[in-house]
Design goal:
By secondary structure, the chain is mainly α. It has helices spanning 3-39, 42-57, 62-73, 80-83, 89-133, 144-159.
Length: 160
């Protein structure tokens, strides 16, 4: 194999490893998000959600980058696991290990993401029940000046 292909393979490996690091960071952020939801700390939750968005932004062009590396390597596959057998034999084990780490990390991300969503939905349901008991549903939460904005929002909603 040429030195150029080896450099491309190493660069691709480093890129995938950097994405794995992003998802590892995301696990920590999701743990903080869960903690904020449990403690009803809305201000800190807002900060955590902003950092989560910034971290996820780093994965925005993942598919494009993988496609570019595949083109450079002269291979084509829909998934990373399908791509590994097409790589040179001496590089496969390293990539299989990385993809295995991806699997574990993604499972952890999904676990915490689901816990956050479930707890948040539960808390929102509790708030809704409390508001219904207090019969707050018919109260206006805006003043006269905001009434125009409310009408324009309703108009926008009907157009959609």
């Amino acid at each position: 194999m040429s030195d150029n292909k080896l450099q491309i393979l190493e660069s691709f490996y480093q890129y995938l490893h950097s994405i794995l690091d992003v998802y590892t960071d995301l696990v920590d952020i999701l743990k903080k998000e869960l903690e904020c939801i449990e403690k009803d700390d809305i201000e800190k939750l807002d900060q955590v959600l902003k950092s989560k968005q910034a971290v996820l932004f780093q994965t925005k062009s993942f598919d494009k980058k993988v496609s570019e590396y595949q083109t450079k390597l002269g291979i084509s596959a829909n998934k990373l696991t399908e791509m590994i057998p097409l790589l040179p034999e001496e590089s496969r084990l390293k990539f299989y290990g990385l993809v295995g780490q991806f699997g574990q990390t993604i499972e952890e991300v999904n676990f915490y993401k689901e816990k956050c969503e479930t707890l948040l939905q539960s808390k929102l349901y509790t708030i809704d029940k409390a508001l219904t008991k207090l019969d707050v549903t018919n109260n206006k939460t805006y003043n006269k000046d905001a009434e125009k904005v409310q009408k324009s929002i309703k108009s926008f909603e009907t157009k959609i």
